[in-house]
Amino acid sequence: MRKICLLVSYDGSDYYGFQSQPGGNTVQDKLELAIRTLTGEQVAIHGSGRTDAGVHARGQVAHFRTESRIPIERWALALNARLPDDIVVRAAAEVPLDFHSRISAIRKTYRYVITSCRFPDVFERKYVFHHPAPLRFDAMREGLQHLLGEHDFSSFTSPLSTKPHHVRTIYEATLAVEPGGDGSVEEGRGRATLTITGNGFLYNMVRIIVGTLLQVGEGKRTPDDIAAILAAQNRAKAGPTAVPYALTLMRVEYGAEWGIDWRAGRGSLNF
């Protein structure tokens, strides 16, 4: 028995999320079908975490058990030949049998992209949220600082969360702004990229953070309101859940003890 770990990118536009569900048409379903077509085995894929319907991934990690003796360097090419064009296995590595893509993860990084230019970019409509009014980017950055460290994020998760507790640690949270593509030069116009890294994220957590930060950017809340919302531990105190399609799971990191090297099937996870 072997355990294979995959580094997977996908455009989530046409899927009901990563994890299998009764309605089908998930990224997990497609991966399991590709493996079954390749090896004849009915395997269960385990991802590092769920991504909601419409959410994308550049660095999702998933594992499965197999009896197949296919060399590790052939897995990615073989699976990509059997996957739809909007799912790509970027690399594969063989891992110890006690490795788990979710439980063994120590850091995850998400990205959310917003444009406050006057007009949306038609070619980015599936990946960038268009906010037609100017935003107070400095206030949004100030609000982000309240999220750093260990907190109970009950205010920033869906009531449907099934986790036993909502304490998580945010290591980094930045908002980078660059000029937008439509020539807008006014204050508050541009393309903003939120990058947030933590030891784990709750159901809808990043999207609720974004929805609340947008209210700060609109002047409906102050940056210090973020601290008060955290302390309330009440979902009703936070802002709306932002749209899913501007969110991407960028990277999942593991400790050196797992010895993952995407290029050679062993080593470290700096890919």
Describe, in plain words, how this protein is organized in 3D.
The protein is of the alpha+beta class and 271 residues long. The chain has helices spanning 27-39, 75-80, 137-144, 205-217, 225-232; strands spanning 2-10, 46-47, 56-66, 87-95, 105-115, 129-130, 149-152, 167-178, 191-198, 247-254. It is built from 5 helices and 10 strands, in the order βαββαβββαβββααβ. Strands 1, 2, 3, 4, 5, 6, 7, 8, 9 and 10 form a 10-stranded mixed beta sheet that branches. A hairpin with an 8-residue loop joins strand 2 and strand 3 (56-66). Helix 3 packs across helix 4 (205-217). The longest helix has 13 residues, at 27-39.
Q: How do the helices and strands follow one another from N- to C-terminus?
A: EHEEHEEEHEEEHHE
Radius of gyration, in Å, reads 20 Å
How many beta-strand segments? 10
Instruction: Label the overall shape.
Output: globular
Number of helices: 5
CATH class of the largest domain, anyone?
Answer: Alpha Beta
* CATH architecture annotation name of the largest domain: 2-Layer Sandwich
Structural class: alpha+beta
pLDDT < 50 runs, ≥5 residues: 266-271
The gist of it:
18% of the residues lie in helices and 28% in strands. By secondary structure, the protein is α+β, with helices and mostly antiparallel strands.
Q: Topology, pairings included?
A:
Elements: E1 2-10, H1 27-39, E2 46-47, E3 56-66, H2 75-80, E4 87-95, E5 105-115, E6 129-130, H3 137-144, E7 149-152, E8 167-178, E9 191-198, H4 205-217, H5 225-232, E10 247-254
Parallel strand pairs: 3-10, 5-6
Antiparallel strand pairs: 1-3, 1-4, 2-3, 5-9, 5-10, 7-8, 8-9
